Protein 1
Amino acid sequence: MTVMATKFTPEVLLSAPRRSAAVPNSTGTLALYTVSEYSFETHSKKYAIKVLDIKTRQSTQLFDNPAYSEPTWLSETEFIVLKSNDTATSVLVADAAKPDIVPYEVIAFTGSLSNIKVKDIGNGTIAFAGTGPKEQPESPDPLTSAKVYTSLFVRHWDSYVPKHKQGLFYGALKKDGSKFKLQTKDLVNALHGTEFETPVPPFGDSSDYDIGPAGLVFVSKDPELNPALYTKTDVYYIPLKSFTEEKSPFPQQIKTGKLQGYAGTPVFSHAGTQLVFKKMRNRQYESDKWRLLLIPDIKDLSNVQEFYRTDDGEGAWDRRPEGVVWSNDDSELYVTAEKEGRQVLFKLPSSPLSAKQLPEQITEDGTIGSFYNLSTSDNRLFFTSTSLVDNSSYSIIDPQSKELGLVSSSSKEGKSFGLTKRQVDEFWFKGAGDYKAHALVMKPSSFDPSKKYPLAFLIHGGPQGAWAQSWSTRWNPAVFAEQGYVVVMPNPTGSTGYGQALTDGIAGDWGGRPYNDLVNCFEHISDNLSYVDTNNAVALGASYGGYMINWIQGHPLGRKFKALVCHDGIFSTLNNWATEELFFPIHDFGGILWEKRDNYARWDPATFAGNWATPQLIIHSELDYRLPISEGLAAFNALQARGVPSRFLTFNDENHWVLKHENSLVWHKEVLGWINKWTGLDTAGLADDTRNLSV
């Protein structure tokens, strides 16, 4: 961002450059990243691959071809880039020091190749891997669109489940003169002839596998369990000596005893002899606590050691580790984990036998995403992060001294948006039980503590999730704050980052403790935040937050708001078996519908629809298969039948989220126009009752 925004509007949010995580090279001198930018004037998107000089902090554009993706370092200056079309992918090699030289092809892959990784395994050999379709899909019958299924899944997230699965492909690259060359005729499908699939759909990525000098490790669903009913995934190991083997050995499962849930993030040590990964215990719970596990010697898969293991199986560290990086000498692990509205870095010894103390926190604020060793000789870490005012920062930290330095901020630490850290606040309030709950606050940039501002009360989804000090292009509190609201984002029962007990507390109690926490939060605002006018308040939520909006409608808290916004919410919990991942309602409602019907019915918003009275905007899209559109239509029908002022917004090409730029702009204008109308704020340029999208 080089242009200063006069006001942080939806257009500014959605057209701001979006940077990927930056990845440093082996010497810590350069970092590769991509950036995309959308123009509402030309209705077009720009894309570029760039390289950042870490010392001078200057960036250089290397390519602007939108067909290029996934820049990945091969050497100090050479890197791989994928060039894809509808039927094939070319793996090209480029040089950041020679941006004018046309990249050359090293691999021609039939089909879509993605999630690439490389690893120097010695003797001048670079192991290469990526994921793609195991088999090429058959051409559809042009005379019919029929699909026939005889087992679960039928559809997943936003698409009907295809017959063919994704495979893991490998090969070896070696210099032949001045150019790299593939050492086999084609890439080898390591999962050929198996039922395994990686990455795990729908959101798996390159973190679902890793390359080591001794072979590959990957995560896959347990092929003996139905993926609609169970979350169980496992880590598998494929030993390879040279990555030129024309046929790989059958994958070996790493068994984890009583830990039978999701597996994730397998990462080889730098030496390649050790493996760390994470695992959940419950095989029908997507938000269980991750536990870190170590295999001290990859040649002995039976020796699996758990960090901070306790006799009761709960684990002594009450955090949920996400990303994992080994120190250069393999003596320490660095992990990210949520903590009270942040995602921060921790460090711990790399052996469970040495990890006597709980991990040490080494960062304080913001949300850290991808992070890497700065170089093979520098023990500092290079990481990408965001905050509530900054959409992309690259920083370096010394894990020992905790000395932190900013390398690059896309928005000049928020200044380009007209935002500052002074707008961000937080408070703790009494929960519905014997605990304190937490909330984040975003104030207008023109905030005056002597004035009163209407309240925008945001309820997060999940339900096992949390509001955090992080950037979003979908629910960005700064957009609401710059309309003139004080935005409060409570993290009630069910939230992550406050210990597993609070996260687990929502199961079987959807409209109980979480609702009462929100009531207490609203009362705390009324009693303690003198600059908030709780008599002029609106509440908004998506997914579980949308469910809670519908629940609030039928209960006393609903009468505290001038208007409500429900995005992709549940109208009736009794309909929740129309979802795709059935393990979700099975866990959260304590069993299957026909055996535990009372558990589903107890927290059904539709039961209380006779009390609905607050004006409400409903948003629900056609491709949301997690919460089918019938839920949004039913809620809108109920509001209309009761004569409650209401509005229905839908997109036929969006899923659980609204992702396309032009659609997202409509979403923002509809939402802001709706709440501003009822709170008396400016609606100029926003949606109003004269706009009918169905015409």
Protein 2
Amino acid sequence: MRPVKKLACCLTLMCVLLATFILYPKQPGCVVDIKYSNPKSAPRSLLEYGLRKPGEELAHISYKTKENIARQLTRDDCNCEGEDTLLNTIVSQNSVTQLEQVFDVAERQEVTQRREKEYQHFLQRTRTSADTLLIAKANSPLEYPTQGVKVRPMKTILIPGLMLQAKSQHLFEVNLTANLGTFDVAAEVDGVKVKGEGEMHLSLSSSHADNLNRQLQFVTYTNTVFNPNTADTVLFETDGHQAKFTIKIRHPVIPKLYNVKNQSGYDISELVTIATKTFLRYDKLRQLISSVRKYYPSVTIVIADDNNETQKIQGAFIEQYFMPFKKGWFAGRNLAVSQVKTKYLLWVDDDFIFAADTKLEKMVDILEKTTLDIVGGSVREVTTYSATFLHKLHVEAGGKEGDCLIIEGGYHHGVKGFPNCVVTDATINFFMARTEKMQQVGFDPHITRQGHLEFFVDGLGLLHVGSCSDVKIDHASKITMPWKQKSKSEKMYHQLRYVQGSEVDSSLQDKLFYFKNRFKCIRYG
């Protein structure tokens, strides 16, 4: 018997070590800084850019402003007072709401400073190098912007960076052609012939290159086809040479900032809401809440509940929302997330248990200091190992039959300054996220009993995902002793989740991947 016991012990030990090797992420070999950057700010307006450079060398050339066009130019100093017209006076003398007035004088300055801090974080998180204005120098005779030109729908801008660097000739001529807007000039330069003002094709000609280039500084573009998120391709040409550049047509991104009053340290109650979905496991839910209250007594807990025989969960800082019976896993997630008012939300299953190393402050810290939108933690199973569920996702282009979804285990690289954190594409079902990003992606309510990876597939390209193995939560044991009888709710849960749910959802998930996401296959790397 002793050799048999020794062999069994050795096999058990080997299984545990193997599971640990597989489930624990290796120490990242590549560490990348994904903290907020500070991109150089662009000029206040394209007008400033156009008149400053190369305006100095052409400043001696006179021009006459076209007031009706210049007034249409987009500026970055909007006037809340509006125009002082007779109509405005007759209709209403108080048609402007000065929003800062809703705050008391004593708190106005502090609120303004706090808002600016949040706004700068928002800008640093959403701006990319693709928004920077770049001008292609005249390798050909034409100089033009290669990126960074934007116009708001149905508005007018100056086009920056247009120039002709041609050799001496009798007549210099350039043409501009658009598809979704018209051209004009905000000022007229002596010695330049302008044809096509207010039309989709504009022609400029002059016997003097400097005069023509001065006129190009005043060329305007007006969007005339309303589409709040598109781009116009402009053709810029001269004798024997053509160039194309795009003008993005879109509204500015409206920030969604969270008014967190306590700025000293991380007040988890102000910053984080805990969200969960419960079904047939009230005993586990109460265990979760009890463990939360041990460490975070005043954090709000939002519960989506689709039980048939419902029980009211009592206690402070608890919001319980009831749904139709068996409405579903992802539908419940949508409901819970929709009720979160804080900057961040923490998603947990109803059978998780907070422990001493469930440090939400660590998750908040990395979200506050990096561009990550979601940071997962580690789920500890029966104190033997912790799972992090790290996956890399990418899509390979296919033909008419659809694309290929590639799923690989692991992560992309580490995060500088956070030695136990990595960047990945999908993390475990214990994560903290920016609330507005969760609401932006949402959860497909077709998925009822099983599903998780589908959310990250829908969020691919929208979500910047990370995971930190040193933030852990316990998972209630699923081991049932042979002598213990399962309750009625436990039997029903097992039947719906693991028997019926497994068969129905696996087939449905494949159908959704095929049709909704246009995949022809999933390949596991």
